[in-house]
Amino acid sequence: MIPEAEPSGAPDAPELPPYQGIALRDVRVVSTPAQAEQARADLLASDAIGFDTESKPTFLKGEKSTGPHLIQLATDRIAYLFPIGAHPASEVLDVLKAILESEQAIKVGFGLSDDVKRLHAKLEIQAVKVLDLSVALRTPGQRNDLGAKTAVAKFFGQKLQKSKKISTTNWASPRLNEKQILYAADDAQVALRIFRHWIAQGGKVPPFKPPKPPRQHRPGNRRPAAAAAATTPPTATRDQTSEH
Length: 244
Description:
Elements (H helix, E strand, L loop, with lengths): L26 E3 L3 H11 L4 E7 L15 E5 L4 E5 L6 H11 L5 E4 L3 H11 L6 E3 H4 L11 H9 L7 H4 L10 H23 L37 H4 L3
Parallel strand pairs: 1-4, 2-5, 5-6
Antiparallel strand pairs: 2-3, 3-4
Helix pairs in contact: 1-2, 5-7
């Protein structure tokens, strides 16, 4: 997601109370086909799903991102985390494809442009009905995208804590720690909570554009999907600098 500065306010304004995120007991790390099927049934029963991805940081000039390494999908109650290792189970990928390409549920999140592109480049998943709240929540005349921190302050009167230290950890690790799990789960579910609040206040979902067809490569010159990931600049990619 796009970087975002702290919400502005008067210098002597009182500190906002902290946003209370999801509890660890309400997070499921999906690693087996059975867990994936359970997640699919729960997620596709919802009209809207919180959506985000995380990728392992890259810092060197010319180094390519191999993300996403984690895909987060959330209902109003439960957040599901799908680690994407070097050889993810085909059954798990089939479930992710079924969810993200389903017309049944809107996928909501902040700064999703890169997430969607990387999903298609690495996994050949073409997410549909994706609502980028950083754009949808902009008021008339507002040019800058609205980030999750600003949205939480605006809609809930709370401060969303975002740790850059956690955001730049190794999301490709085969075993995520508790702080990573909660950080990733919150990224997906806070978007869904804000979406619900926005709709309750009269927000209207704009028409969805049809997904662009995949680019065709000439015979004998087809690149592997993973090689389509964008080359990162010398500084950290958006996965390390974003506030999600």
